[in-house]
Amino acid sequence: MTNTALLVMDLQQAIASRVPDPDYVPRLAGAVRAARAAGLPVVHVVLGFRAGHPEGHPRNKTFGALPEGAFTDQDPGAAIVSEVAPEPGEIVVTKKRVSAFTGSDLRLVLDARGIEHLVLTGVATRGVVLSTLRQAADLDYRLTVLSDGCADPEPDVHRFLLERIFPQQADVLTIEDWTKTL
Questions:
Q1: Sequence-distant (≥ 6) Cβ neighbours of residue 164 within 8 angstroms
Q2: Which residues form a coiled coil (predicted)?
């Protein structure tokens, strides 16, 4: 499995704080610990902007409407949740849009390490997970989505994506079932 990486996406204070399930972050932290114990790279993907948000176009309903200073280096809400924070040597990739690939060097980092299989986790299922899955599939990565390693504010949307959409392009496993394969 040395060609596999666990992607922990958008686990930033301002985003993860909106997840209603109090067990979500501890559960995801267990997946991160399991990946580390198995020697798999853990790649942290975060949303980040320069001061003044020059990357945020006004036509973009999501990012054009962010308040000044949101997801900049000075924003405490941009910090990665401590339970899944990077260990020394782990890669943090900064993205500028919903997909982990858009506006980031993620593909370069993965290709340089020979990564061919991505295990996706993050908030929100309908946002970063869906967008990254679709782009990664088009880039010919093998994909696994950890169903309980993703969260979405709308349970029906989360369930629909995991049951109906994601299986068309990825294996969908629970964290427990995935860790048994390590």
A1: none
A2: none
